[in-house]
Write a structure and sequence with these properties.
globular, 5-stranded parallel β-sheet, 3-stranded parallel β-sheet, single chain, TIM Barrel, alpha/beta, 296 residues
């Protein structure tokens, strides 16, 4: 059966302890997420500080998540870098470790052309056998995957099954969905736009906030997919304060502060990211308390 990506997928943080990846906490976070009913997990993405996680560390993280999940939900491993050869190496590793799909971000810093993006994805696709989820987030890079380029990639690369669309442009997402229909699953890449994107045909969200409130974010998506727009809207509106709190500073600082306050991870982030300022942490904690969460 082909992999179907419907639901809320948590863009997992990477916990550190004393500068090293804290695999025991990776395991406990994974189990908690699954128990809370999340639709799937995405280790080693942007929220997981992928630019500063080494290839060896990424393998350990992905292996841990895959082992703990034990096929209960899909695992989409972040493998994209700004080097095609390195992306192939990491994608092959994720495949060997048992991930259900690999998420490939559009290369950052290099500033490739649209033709370069097509060639990059095609090279990764042709060198591997795992389903691919593309990730377009131009605010974190320099390349912006155009709608017509996505259509061309879908034609050339049959194992590209989904797109995490994080441009904030619902019109763009709508154009891609109109052009590709059921050929490609579009997943929202911005928590606050989940409902709007799903109204245009997206099938869920790859979420930052679900690190903190997995059941609640999954509830927004599940209600919509079940046809209960009013309930989905109610749940989404209840989360708006939490969504805003996750971005009072650059992600993943606030969400890590939230999880540390909840007692789920050590209060640690890897340079060049800095721990959020005291005022930012206070805003984040206030939003969590207003939602009804408690310190761990």
């Amino acid at each position: 059966m082909a992999l179907r990506l419907d639901g809320a997928f948590t863009a997992m943080v990477t916990p550190f302890r004393g500068g090293a990846v804290d695999l025991a906490t990776v395991a406990s976070l994974t189990e908690w997420q699954v128990t809370e009913g999340i639709g799937g997990l995405v280790p080693c993405g942007t929220t997981g500080e992928s630019p500063t996680v080494t290839a060896a560390e990424a393998k350990e993280i992905i292996a841990t998540v895959v082992r703990v999940v034990n096929k209960r939900v899909p695992v989409i491993a972040g493998t994209g870098t700004n080097a095609t050869a390195e992306t192939i190496v990491r994608t092959r590793a994720a495949q060997e470790l048992g991930a259900d799909a690999a998420m490939v971000v559009m290369p950052y810093y290099n500033k490739p052309s649209q033709a370069g993006l097509v060639a990059h994805v095609r090279a990764v696709h042709d060198a591997t056998d795992i389903p691919l989820v593309l990730y377009n987030v131009p605010t974190r890079g320099t390349a912006d995957l155009a709608a017509e380029t996505m259509v061309e990639i879908a034609r050339l690369c049959p194992r590209v099954i989904a797109l995490k669309e994080a441009t904030g442009n619902i019109v763009r997402a709508q154009s891609i969905i109109a052009a590709l229909g059921d050929r490609l699953t579009v997943l929202c890449g911005d928590d606050g736009l989940t409902l709007g994107m799903m109204a245009c045909g997206a099938r869920g969200v790859i979420s930052v906030a679900s690190n903190v409130v997995p059941a609640a974010v999954q509830g927004v998506v599940s209600a919509f997919l079940a046809g209960d727009l009013a309930e989905s809207r109610r749940r989404q509106q209840a989360l708006l304060g939490v969504y805003d709190a996750m971005f009072v500073e650059t992600n993943p600082g606030p969400v890590k502060a939230a999880l540390a306050w909840m007692g789920k991870i050590p209060a640690e982030i890897r340079l060049p990211m800095a721990w959020p300022a005291e005022a930012s942490v206070a805003k984040t904690v206030a939003a969590l308390k207003a939602y009804g969460l408690q310190a761990g």
